[in-house]
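Sequence only, no structure available. Ideas?
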Amino acid sequence: MTGKSKTYNERVNCYACKHFYVTWDAQMPRGCRAFGFKSAMLPSIVVKQSSGAPCMKFVQKEHKGRNG
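Reply:
I predicted one. Tokens follow.
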């Protein structure tokens, strides 16, 4: 999946998204750069609860080889 959103019933794996990051905030350790927020829950769950739809900004991370 390269830049396309998931279908309605699929779960979005934030850990595989290039917009996901881990924060230094112990109260809100997960963040989404695409939507610009931090949360205690995975951002995809917050988006689903807020909008009723799965995250539309999911972009698969590009994995580099072990050498760089």
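The beta strands are 20-22, 30-32, 37-39.
Hope that gets you unstuck.
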